[in-house]
Every structure is written in structure tokens, then in C-alpha cells.
Amino acid sequence: MTIREEIDAQFPIRKTTAQKRAFEKWVMAKMREMGYRPYVDGMNRKDKLRHRNIVAGDPQNAELLISAHYDTAATIGIPDLRIPRNFPVYILAQGAVLLGMLLISLLIGTAVGLATKSGDLLILTFFFAYLALMLLMMFGAANKHNVNDNTSGIAALLETMQRLSPEAREKTAFILFDHQETGSRGAKSYGAQHVEVQTMKLLVDLNCVGDGDTFVISAPKMAQDKPEYAVVRESLEANAMASGVSTQFFGRAGVQGAGDYRRFVCGVGVSAYHHSAGVGLITGRIHTSRDIVCRQENLDYLAKSLADAAQKMNDL
User: Fold this and answer.
1) Is 187 in the same domain as 311?
2) Cα dist. 183→107, 153, 169, 189, 266 in Å?
3) Are residues 133 and 148 in the same domain?
4) CA torsion, ordered 149, 150, 156, 160, to nearest 10 deg
5) What CATH number should be reported for the domain holding residue 210?
6) What is the C-alpha to C-alpha distance for residues 90 and 70, in angstroms, rounded to an integer?
7) pLDDT under 70: residue ranges of the chain
8) Best label site of 85, 177, 195, 269, fewest CB within 10 Å?
9) Count of domains in the chain?
10) Is the four-CA dihedral 26, 27, 30, 36 of positive or negative sign?
11) What is the pLDDT of residue 74?
């Protein structure tokens, strides 16, 4: 059984406090088996959400940080279409979701308004129905299938940890972020408490890396200027063909979408996509019951590439 299969079998949903604590206990034990000393980063008690970011290694002194989020998204059955490079289609897709929610809210409001013969209640119901749908998208029932988002990222991170030599481990740190699905609040809280890491360290974030054979790597100019980034890019490019994947590298401004990596000055986002005629790069199963696809080849590719890069950090 692979690490990804093990997580999916035991912890397919990581949303409630109990579910997260069970996963936290398991993953920290897994890291200890590999020879690491993981810990839960101190929570910022000013935050209403109790973020618990799981850390292995020494981010303050590491040359390469690798991250993934471990929390599970809520769902109302609408797919989170991620279209990183086609801005017009991306806007149309987001607009279609917004329009659908407005129409549903209007139908509910109209029904209440007709039943009560009150225009005020129609408007009030419409407003609260729309607000409820927005809240349900973030804080509602958990999506039951999360193989790509983001069991894939967790598994790739753990497989990378397995591969590292003792020398490479001294140069590498790992973070599993909480609360990415509610606005990357776990990453934001971590950055606020560790400003040097947030502003200076190269962080490679693995999010939705299992479904698709084209990897999009998004990095801001400050990350691209770092010698560590050149090593990571070289390793990703060198292993791509043999792994049956392709890579595309862009600046941060050239890629649509959110992610924990955007909370870091030198954050690099890594995600996998399919090619679709007329759309380009897209992933469309996440936040739905169809999020059940993960290519093990993708995880092996990332683990090998990142482990190779970590090993080369000693030569910088």
C-alpha cells in the first residue's frame, strides 16, 4: 500500500477537530519512523481559527522548505475549476458559479416572497440565501473525496521525506499547513509568527499534484532569483520526461488561482493539470465526489525531483 492509499483509507476527510487530530497523530508518528522530530507549531491565539501547522526540520536554517495543506474542503457539489493560464475562460467559469448561486438565491427568495406576499421578505430571503451558500462553500459539509485536493500533496511531501539522505535533511524543512481551504489562514498565521521564513526562505508548495500530467510551477521574481530555485527547477526539468510528465514555469502574476505559497514572498506553487481543447490547462474534479484520481507517477516524480534538489543544496 502506498502512502497515498494509506492516507485515503484511514483519513479521507480531515475537516473536524477530531479528524484533524487523528491525522496529526498518525502523520507525526510516520515522520518519527523516518527519523524526523515533528512538532505542531505554536498557535497564534489571536486567531479565531485554531491553526495547527505540522513542522519537521528547522525552517529558520533550512535552504529549502516543502509544504502542503492537510485540511479538507467543504462542498456544495460545485467543482472548483482551476484554469491557471486562460484568464477569460477563468472569469467566465467563476461568473457562471456566481450566477448559479444568485439564481438559486433568487428562486428561494421569490418563493418566500410569493408565499408571504411580502417584497421585503423576498429581498431579505434572497440576501440570506446567498450568504448561506457562500458560507456553505467554505464552512459547510466536508467533501468526502479528496484524493487530489490535497491527499496527493501530503503523500508527495512524505515520499520526499523518505528519500532524503541525512545530509539533505539538514538543509530541508517540511510544513503541513492547516486551514488552506478557508483562505490560507494557517499559512498566513505561520508567516506572521516567523517573518524571516515568510520573507526570505524558498518554499515549494504542493497542492493538487495528482490529477494531470502537466505541472505548472509558479514563482515570483524574488524566488526565481534565488540559487535554490534554480536547483529545484533543474531537478524538475531533468526528471520530467522519464516520469511521463511535462513542466511549465511561470511568474506568479501569470497564473490564476490561490494557494498557501502566495502567503510567502519566495513561495513557489506546484500543481498538476490536464490539457483541454479551447481551454488549455485545467483541473475540474476537486471539491466534488469525482476527486478520486491520483497518478502515483506524479508523486514519485515530485519526490525524486525534490529529493535530488535537496541533495544538491549542499553544493551551493
Assistant:
1) yes
2) 29, 18, 30, 11, 19
3) no
4) 150
5) 3.40.630.10
6) 26
7) 42-49
8) 195
9) 2
10) negative
11) 87
